[in-house]
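Pinned message: reference record for histidine kinase
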Amino acid sequence: MTLPPFPPDLGAVPTVRAFGAALAQFACRTVRAHGVQVWAVVGGSLGVVGEEGRGLGLSDGTLAARSLAQGETLEEGMLACVPFGGGVLEFVGADPAGVEVMAGLTPLLTLALEGVQAREARRGQGRVAETVERLVRRLGGSLDLAEVLTATAESAALALGFGRAFVGLFSELGEDGARTGEVFTYGFDPSFTGGIGVGPVSLGRLTGRGEVILFEKARDAGTPLGAGLAELDPEVALIAPLTARGRPLGLLYVDSRSPGARVTEDDTRLVLALAEQASLAIDNARLYGIETRKREAAEALREAGAALAGSLHLSDTLERILEQATALFGTDAAGVYELQPDGRTLSIRSAVGLPSEYVLRVRAKVGAGVTGRAVERRALVTAVDLNTAHLGGGSRYTRQLLAQGRYPYRGVIGLPLGTRAGVFGALTLYWKAPLPLDADDLALTEVFAAQASLAIENARLYEEELRREREAAVLLNVGRLLGEDQSDRALSEAARLATLALNAGRGLIALTGGETGEVSRCAGFNLPPLAPADLAGLLAQVGRGPRPLTRRHALPGAGSALIVPLRGGAGGDTVLGFLYADDPGAEAPSDRVLGLARSVADQMALTLTRERLLAALAREEARYRQLAEGAHDLILSADPSGTVTYANPAATRLLAPLTGPLVGASLLGLATPATRPALQAAWEAAHTQPGGGRAEIEVAGYRLEVRLSAVRPGGVLHGVLTVARDLSELQTLADEIQRRGQALEAATSRTLELRSYLTLFTQAQEEERRRISRELHDDTAQVLVATTRRVARLARELGGEHRARADDILGDLGAAIESVRRFARNLRPSVLDDLGLLPALEWLVSQAQTDARLEISGAERRLPPALELTVFRLAQEALTNVDKHARARTAAIRVAFEEDGVRVAVSDDGQGFTPGQAQARAQEGHLGLIGLRERVTLAGGELEVDSEPGRGTTLRFRLPG
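Predicted structure (tokens):
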């Protein structure tokens, strides 16, 4: 509701009747009623003091008296009464909306009537009345507060004949005294504009008792009052209170610096009368100013709301919020802080007037500083002067500035911005001076913050809807692309769409294939061709699920990245590939972006899985058809009525020459009359039994075993599948299988005999080696040693040339002894029988031509003699092969003792070989590897050969024991 401007002459009229006449004209014109009467209490009774218009004869004063008594607006027929103070406005034929408008002006009308009544009561009181009258005429009903205060100061100074006067309104009021804001002066230096303090004693006299304070320099120079007025240095001074409706407003000060100046009792009454009249005018002006300010604020908020509602894009909305806030509240700077996903940090999303370094470095914490407290409390937080408010800074940077005294702002307020989804952040306003807003202004900021929150909510909802539409379009397009075509071109287009939807700079779609699960195909957007190592590195990150990637795991040139696996299969446990996107910026992908990436990846995986299933279904169908076409069994399918719809070649070859074309014939009619009931029973069982039906029938001289199964995809019967087998052919096959089984059994028996023979042969060979080794060591070697000693004695007895020949014979005998001993050890090293496997292997390693080493793991123990011998021979043969064929620099024997056996690995770093090369060497007569495998098999173990050209060879065998 917009209030009409209050007529200034209403407060300046000299009498109540003049007031009534002026008010009647104003009300009749404003409301557009047929007639208006103004009633007022005069001489203790209610009477008409002003009227305007027609139809006034309808009123007898009853409704007006009742409205005044009840203190509320009343209507009766064409009459309507609005009470105000000691009077009533009575309308004839008024518009209800107009009556409501005038009801809003009742506080001003009340004050105006009280002023007129007060002036009329004081009229005729000599100098006081004349002075007050002059002030009233001087004010002329003005509602301009500055003008009222200036006129009051001038009138007081001139009326008393003093040189100076000022009027100040209280800006601070408390138990410790009061302080005025700006003062309006007469006769003072122009630079004297305000900041007057009033002590608690003086304030009590002024506002508590309503007294006028008199100061005389000769008397009061040494008092606290004299000390407070020392700067003004008055000879005499009067200080009067300004109050209205029991509320202190300020003070009126008049003084003289002329020596000998005196103040009379009339002067005191005059100042008090002027103060009373000024108080009414000040209160009227203040109320009017408040109403005007409310109207202006409401209009400003309406305009601000319209401006904020003009955009549905969040960035533009935030800029308009800052623009309107700066214009409404006169800020030096403003910023919108946004709450980050961690729920603890606030960063500046948009700002105006703030230094760039401030915007970049400030990261406010929830609960700290003005902004953080506003978000935590979800309420307005103010700092009149941040340097003295001890609220601290919301971030380390602002705390540093405050500690160094370099913080550029003093007045700061924080306003929470909330949406239905939660707190969005805060609007923070900054002033370089102390906070200039009063309580009404702060209330206005809260209303503005509510408007801003609504605008942000609308913008976010709009952008969320747009985002969902874009995401749905992306998902639809990606699904359509890959559903229609899975070529490299379609894959590249899908990568482009996904990258743009994620607001990323680069993107990649990679598909896996084959048994190894490696990347088989990939398509990128804004990416150069990738090396296999880069693709393998990304694929290694897929197992950890959808997530942002650190710079170390992203592709070169990326500041931030994400990866999402494409999972398919029944349980989503098959990795079909991955979706990758990155950006040069360092900010990690948000939860929303990661969620969209998951949706895109799920859509891709769903499409790829469906297409792969369809392709697999087609392959399976072709395979089953191929199996049916190549099967020896007779396969026929029939529809629910029993008509044959398909017959495979085997059925056609066997039956068609005898029965005619099978497709289109009756399945039940193929059997001979004698076996047809059995086929009919099997047909019925196929429809009712889960396992189908079986029967033996005859068809054109062939005896067939048939099995019938119902085909019910989706639970609906589509036909019957019949599989038949020629029993005569089956008997032939059974005879052949029996014959081949007997032959296999004989071969197996022969193989077992050969293995038993080979085992016995190997044992006999080892025994023979042991016997020969002992004979060589115990007999031949001893004979040679004895002969050597005899020749040595003979050499000592001979001299000259004969002794030299004897020494030569001694050298030959020593070499022969060493050769015999070495041969004996190779046949059967005694260390194996005496000390066990490990010392024997150490001796074997020391004798190898290739640099070899022995490594042991597990709990060492003695093995059965036969097993130790087998392990020794296997290692010996393996090292011999290394020396002869591997061309290796080093070799190693690794023995691992286990609870139920032993594992041995012999490895080298030689030239290695392929299976084909090993087979060729075997055909050339090199049977070392075959012998090793056979010896391991005889011992009940397993042999594994791992070799590759250029990478060496490793023989691993495990023996139980």
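Pinned by admin. Summary line: The CA atoms of residues 74 and 524 lie 80 Å apart.
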